[in-house]
Amino acid sequence: MPAEIYLVKVGMNMTEGIVEEWYIPDGGHVEKGQLLYRLETEKVNLDVDAEVTGTVKHLVAEGVTMLPGDVVGYIFEAGETIPDDLGAASGSGAAAAAEAAPVASTPAAAPAAAAPTAGEGGRLLSSPAARRLARELGVELGEVAGTGPGGRIVEADVSRAAAEGGAGAQGGPSSPLARKVARELGVDIAAVRGTGPGGRITKDDVEAAAAARARAPAAPVAAPRAATAPAGTVPVRGMRKTIAARMHESLMSTAQLTMDMDVNMDDAVRLRTQLVEEWADEGIKPTYTDLVIRAVAKALAKNPLMNSSWGDSEITLHGEIHVGMAVALPEGLIVPVVRDAESRGFKSLVQETGRLAVAARDGKVGLDDLQGGTFTVSALGMFGVDSFTPIINAPQAGILGVNRIRDDVRWEGNTPVKAQVMRLSLTWDHRVLDGAPAAEFLRSVKGLLEAPYRLLV
What we know:
CATH 2.40.50.100, Chloramphenicol Acetyltransferase, 18 strands
């Protein structure tokens, strides 16, 4: 009997998931313990390995929404007969998927390459594994044709692009330097004839093509075409679906208000500069958001109503302070949690925020890192934002927005003095606390940042 491949259930609250990427092709061989597929859920992505050795048969395609525990494929032992029709998979979600995407009895051919598809904000749709591999191999994702659902770039696309040297349909393989020079000179590398080994396109070939183009008579200039925005659709699923549902629910079910307060950051800037130099040999680099998270943790200890959550008949005051830090990813927003943020030393806090940020961007953050937050900090200052209205991560009572540090003026008597100022934007649930205690909490954060030595004790 073949071994069933299940859609792994991750956490008690998981309601659906997809096979984001098959690491083993349909009909391919897998060893026990080898990575089998990448799971995408509402909260987190993770790699799933094979429990047995054998031949893999896919029951569902990449990108199909399934229920936890549904069968997504099988692993057949050596010598075991693989039927042409594997039959209906267990679970209603798998059965529907099997009808939509029947499994072939022989290894499937690589799907036709599609142009890379842009997601929200013009970002290319690509899997975390594809992005990691592209960084390792020096492949430009913008030059990779995606064959995943909706034109999504998967790991196999990056591997193929690296093997082909990133060449176009008509050109031969090319070196990374040749592709870089081609982009800089505006040369279509697919039209360049390579003179290197095996027809490989070199830097000299690209420069020669550019020189030949410069010598050629200028072609009549055609009327410029009107610029058009990227068209298409983006499936609402996984992380984006969860974010949409929770943000809408948060706004509908809470009484949210926002207030702003300016903070003089002169001393905080000096402290951070000194700590960056002090910890440089250890590879530890504190950010301004780290200073804010530390200040928030200390302020929450003095303002316990802000470190609480709303219930239908009671307000729960949390005895521990776990601060969530919003991290932006191409596919959405994720909020890993810095546990015990108030009792940690500042260096320990900086190390933890760094670990969480890297894990989140690499798709390796664990479920434990995403649970238990009692308050959230969201930073947009790196984008030049002066003020925004963050939405509460319900059922928490508040969220603090961190804006850019700007040049401003403060007064010493009648004398204007240049100052570096940052605006903090606090959104709080008016059901839990009124404006005055919310302002007191924000003033506590401000006071800690303006006397930042207190963050180190």
